[in-house]
Structure formats: structure tokens, C-alpha cells
Amino acid sequence: MATDVKVPALGESITEGTLAQWLKQPGEAVAADEPIASLETDKVSVEVPSPVAGTLSEQLFKEGDTVAVGAVIARIDEAGAAVAASAPAPAAAAAEPATGQGQTEVAGAQVNPVGAGENHALREDHAAAPADHADLTLSPAVRRAVLELHVDPSKINGTGKDGRITKDDVLLTAKAKDGAATPVHEPGVKAPAAGAAAPEPVPQPAKAAGERHEERVKMTRLRQTIATRLKEAQNTAALLTTYNDVDMTAVIDARARYKDLFEKKHGIRLGFMGFFVKAVALAARDVPSVNARIEGDEIVYSDFLDVSVAVSAPKGLVVPVIRDADKLSFAEIEKAIAAYGKKAKDGTLTAEDMKGGTFTISNGGVFGSLLSSPIVNPPQSAVLGMHRIEERPVVRDGQIVARPMMYLALSYDHRLIDGREAVTFLVRVKEAIEDPTRLLIDL
Predict the structure, then answer these.
(1) Closest CA to 223 of 70, 45, 99
(2) Residue 102 DSSP SS3
(3) What is the rounded CA–CA span in Å between residue 299 and residue 305?
(4) Is it the case that residue 333 has pLDDT exceeding 90?
(5) Model pLDDT for residues 69-78, shown as the tens digit of each residue
(6) For residues 204 and 197, what is the distance between their CA atoms, to the nearest angstrom?
(7) Distance from C-alpha of 152 to C-alpha of 89, rounded to nearest angstrom
(8) Residue 87 gets which letter from DSSP?
(9) What pLDDT sits at residue 45?
(10) Which of 1, 205, 318, 346 is the most buried (most CB within 10 A)?
(11) Residue 300, SS3?
(12) Where does 163-319 have alpha helices with state H?
């Protein structure tokens, strides 16, 4: 009996996506809830799981096709699950390893258990896939990498929060070498079958001197959406940017003084973003228009602050939202940011994570930016740009001294926010950062 695989709900107002990649090919066995395809939407990448265990019998769309929510994209033959279940398990049929050898024989092939400094012999089938480690908590991206690289997750030391395994942990483990020349394949690239001869390298024609080439790559749906929204912001809003600089001495001193106690108590590092989110919340009370938006001929003011934090992901800039940021503690803000950063890296952000937002903070300083003019994220009316910290000469009490300074930029929609309000807001942020005590006494 064949079971249809349908495109799942992709989030509010999202009706279609692009089939970015098939993770399984016809004839391959799949487990229930195992991802078989990856979709790209306007906001996030979504993996489509198999509803049942069996064999992928048919693919109804090609990579790059646009598929609607609810559309049938593949079919799973459940009879394949019964055949797989009746076959003897390769691990059970294999001989017991010799004591102290550090090897396990699987279906006649020698496979080194993966660990620090050990190599892993890859096979085309999934006999060595870690199916017996279901108790480990793995994200979809990590699970896919584990299956495709045939890495035993129980042998991986996770570097993520609470010791969880990240995709980088899997890749590093798979690429670890112990003097062997066994190639390691990236996820999505099939390894040669056990015992098969390695393919002969295809000779590449030598480039002629002075020869130039161009490459055309289709824009991803996410990149197209980013381009469209940013251009709409420029065409619709009356954008203007005001600048200021801030002395980071007090915040740096506070972090140095309390970072160990903070991490010991809350299990998270004390970063700069928590101070800026708190400063924005404080300043928005004095200048509520920066937290408002225009809808038709009305101005909508929010009595809550949902801060969109711009995060760089492998496929482009994403903006997850910290809900009710004005009511959160430093620890809660830092935990939310860390969780979103990890999800962005693993490609597991959902549309719900990025829904809404009343104000945006973008930190170009992590990439070394000295100064920039960020673009407002519609329908929001303002965005705060942070930049790198560097020592610069400033005058204090009549003396020229070196201080760790950062440029701040506030881009805003001049249709809603006047220059006086924008400057006042940025000055309030500057005052709170230079004297963090203001954050405690609400001044």
C-alpha cells in the first residue's frame, strides 16, 4: 500500500514553497518521521518527514519546483517496511569484534567506531546508520547528517547546549583522520558502495591564460524574498538614519565583573545584546513611536516590545523575534538569543519564530562593520544598528583618553517618527549603555 507524502503547513500566510532538495531517492528505505525532502519558503527552510516507514517509491516533483501546501510530492510504499523488517539485521549477523581491536564488522566490511582522531569507512546503504540511538535528542539537520555520513551519535561529544550534538560535531567527527585515506563525503553526496572501486578522477581542461568565466546561480526563495522586502521598504517608507557613538566602558566592566557568576547561576554567557535590548525597552517608553507602525491611514502603537534580532544563517539573513523583550530578564534574553542562533545555524528556525516583531536590532559589529545604515524591516518603523567596538581617543574631563567606543545607527520611517524623536531615542539608549544603573532604576 502506498502512502502519500504531502507538503505540511508552512506557517501563517505561507501557501507555497520551493522543493530545494530530495533527501531520499526512489528505492531507498525511510523510517517514520524521517525527512525525505527539504522545502524553502519565503522565511525558512522546512524538512518534509515521511508519515510512515517503508520505501520511497515515487517522486512527483523535481528539485526547484514550486509546491503548494497540501500537495502530494511523493509516495511511500509501506510494503518495503515489512521486507526490511523480515531481513536479518546486519549488526546481528556480523561477527563479534575481537577484544581490543576497536573495530566492528558490519556485513563483511570493517567499520571503525567514530571517535576523536578515528576515521569512519562509509557505505552506500544505511546498515551502519545509528538506528539504535533513538534516545539521543537530535535536531532534523543533525539527524540527516548522521544518517548520510553513517556516524554513530553515541560516539560524538556534543559541544552544543547541555551537551547536545550539533551538525558541526557530526562533520568534524566524520572528517577526523587517523592516517587513513578514506574519503569523507558531505551530506547529500553519496559514498561509493563497500568494495567498489573509486571512480577515476575526471580530467579538467586547463584554463587558457586570461580566460574569464561567469556562473549563473538561481536565487533561493529566501534570497528573493529578502530582496523584495528590502526594496519595498525603500520604495514605501521615508527612510532616514541618525547616528551616535557610545562609550562601552561601563558595560565591558560589568561583564568582566559578573560574567562568571552570571554563567554559573543561569547557565548562559552574559553578552552585549542583553544590555541593548534592555536599553531599547527603556528608551521606547519615552519614545513609543519607534515601537509603532503605519497601517493605512492609522498609527498602531504596541504596549509590548517584540524585538527582532537579525541573525546570519547559511542561506541568508533571518530575523527571529524575542517576544515581550521588555518583560524579560538579562538571562532570559541571552538564552533566547542563544537558542535562536543555534536554530539558525542548524537550519531549524520555524516561520513562527520569525512572525511579528515591533522593533529590530542588527549587530553588524560581529562581522567587523564600523558604521552602516540599516534598512527598516517592514511593517516596523525603526531598526537599531550596532557596530564593532574599538578604542578611540575621546575627551574626558579635559583629558584625551582611549575608550572602547561603538557607533550606533537608528534608521527610521520619517513618515511616523520625527527627527527629534529619533535623536531622543538614540540618546536614551546611549545613556543607558554608558550608565547601566539606569536600567535598574528605570531612569
Answers:
(1) 45
(2) coil
(3) 16
(4) yes
(5) 888 888 888 8
(6) 21
(7) 16
(8) S
(9) 72
(10) 318
(11) strand
(12) 167-175, 221-236, 249-266, 273-286
Q: How many CB atoms lie within 10 A of CB 44?
A: 26
Q: Is the pLDDT reported for residue 359 higher than 90?
A: yes
Tell me which of 33, 260, 418, 435 is the catalytic residue.
Answer: 418
For β-strands 292-295 and 298-301, DSSP reports them as antiparallel
Structure confidence at residue 374 (pLDDT): 92
Looking at residue 20, its amino acid is A
Query: For the purposes of burial, counting CB atoms within 10 Å of the CB of 236, is it exposed (0-12), middle (13-18) or buried (19 or more)?
Result: middle
Asked if 411 and 399 touch (Cβ cutoff 8 Å), the reply is no
Length of the chain: 443
Minimal CA–CA distance to 56: which of 39, 79, 38? Answer: 79
Q: pLDDT-derived band of residue 176, with 50, 70 and 90 as boundaries?
A: confident
CA distance 406 to 72: 52
Strands of 278-371, DSSP E: 292-295, 298-301, 307-309, 311-313, 316-318, 321-322, 359-363
Interior angle at CA 85, CA 80 and CA 88, nearest 5: 125
- The CATH number of the structural domain formed by 2-85 is 2.40.50.100
- The residue extents of the domains of the chain are 2-85, 89-94+104-175, 222-441
**Alpha-carbon gap, residue 140 to 33, rounded angstroms:** 10
**185 catalytically annotated:** no
Cβ within 8 Å of residue 185, ≥6 positions away: 122, 148, 149, 191
Query: Residue 361: is it exposed, middle or buried by C-beta count within 10 angstroms (0-12/13-18/19+)?
Result: buried
Q: What is the CATH number of domain 222-441?
A: 3.30.559.10
Bond prior to 436 in cis (omega within 30° of 0): no
CA dihedral (73, 77, 81, 83) in degrees, to 10, reads -150
Q: Which residues neighbour 236 within 8 Å (Cβ) at sequence distance 6 or greater?
A: 378
Task: Return the C-alpha cell found at 3.
Answer: 502512502
Asked whether the beta carbons of 143 and 35 are under 8 A apart, the reply is yes
Residue showing cell 542562533: 341
**Separation in Å, CA 437 to CA 91, 280, 376:** 62, 15, 30
Kindly report the CA angle at 339 between 319 and 311, in degrees rounded to 5?
Answer: 25
- Within 10 angstroms of residue 260's Cβ, the number of other Cβ atoms is 11
- Three-state DSSP at 320 gives coil
Catalytic residue among 33, 178, 324, 414: 414
Which residue shows C-alpha cell 549488526? Answer: 91
The answer to whether the predicted template modeling score (pTM) of the entire model surpasses 0.70 is no
Residue 414 a catalytic site member: yes
For residue 264, how far is the Cα from the chain centroid? 26
